[in-house]
Design goal:
Helix content is 10%, strand content 49%. With 281 residues, the protein is mainly β. The protein has one domain.
Length: 281
């Protein structure tokens, strides 16, 4: 089997090469008669085949119930990774034909209140949507989670212990205001990608962790970790880990900076063939 490496540019494009040939196209000439739009469509289609190529080159292994389970206050988490900062991401949604149907910019904000034992993680989108997660520090057990858009809001309030209050509102009208009981150890789902950067990733590493998402928890399984390479805008190669996740039956590919732990690229394909991409700016 040919071993593939996915070379991902910082501007979001994905190229593929094998050990015999680099298929990255040459930079367009200023006199190139083909419009840039065709080039963008070509690269978008390359993104759509990323999953089939990646899974072919790095097949997912069967689920392993013996995988170590990461829980709040787990000693394997590198707490030094969690620190006050701002990170920006570009969000892109492609339909099954490779056409860009939606884009946005996301500002990821982390604040830590050591005195009161709180970590606050905000995801602020430039279209008005704001997601916030408040967790105990340093255990990272969820306390309060809210998702607010121009037309509504959704809240999970964990301050009642195992009894969680769930509230949703749409266009100023309350849709639901209920409580439910949960059990087990879990993280807030908004922290999923953040947790990856704090784990001791290395080739062959496997683990899983539970995230709270509504009345049902979601198991995030790290199925495999490989070394890979990302091309930056200046043409330099960045050493990364390619992390293969399974989340709610979906396969997700994450490219993590080996030196900082930061998420550089996230690609998820859904059953209808469309693809959701996050890219660090």
């Amino acid at each position: 089997m040919i071993e593939y490496t996915f070379l991902i540019l910082a501007d979001g494009d994905i190229y593929q090469k094998n050990t015999m040939q680099n298929t990255r196209p040459a930079a367009p000439s200023p006199t190139n008669p083909f419009p840039n739009r065709l080039v963008r469509i070509f690269f978008a289609l390359l993104i759509l085949i990323t999953f089939s190529c990646a899974i072919s080159a790095h097949p997912l292994i069967a689920p392993d119930t013996t995988q170590p389970t990461i829980v709040p206050a787990d000693k394997s988490l590198n707490l030094a990774y969690f620190k006050p900062r701002n990170i920006f991401q570009k969000l892109t949604w492609l339909n099954k034909d490779g056409k860009v149907v939606w884009q946005a910019t996301l500002n990821l904000v982390t604040r830590i209140d050591s005195v009161n034992g709180r970590l606050v993680y905000l995801q602020i989108r430039n279209d008005g949507k704001k997601d916030s997660s408040v967790a105990e520090w340093p255990s990272l057990k969820p306390i309060y989670v809210a998702s607010v858009s121009p037309t509504g809001k959704f809240i999970n309030d964990y301050r009642g212990g195992p009894t969680v209050r769930q509230f949703s509102e749409n266009n100023g009208k309350v849709d639901s205001d209920t409580t439910f009981t949960i059990s087990g150890d879990y993280f807030d789902s908004f922290l999923t990608e953040y947790l990856l950067g704090a784990l001791p990733l290395q080739p062959g590493y496997q683990a899983r962790f539970q995230t709270g998402q509504g009345t049902k928890g979601v198991m995030v399984s790290i199925r495999q970790v490989y070394t890979d390479v990302m091309l930056l805008d200046d043409g330099q190669a960045k050493e990364v880990y390619l992390v293969l996740l399974e989340v709610s039956g979906f396969n997700v590919l994450c490219w993590m900076d080996r030196s900082t732990g930061d998420l550089l690229k996230y690609v998820c394909q859904v059953p209808d063939g469309s693809v959701f991409i996050k890219s660090k700016i």
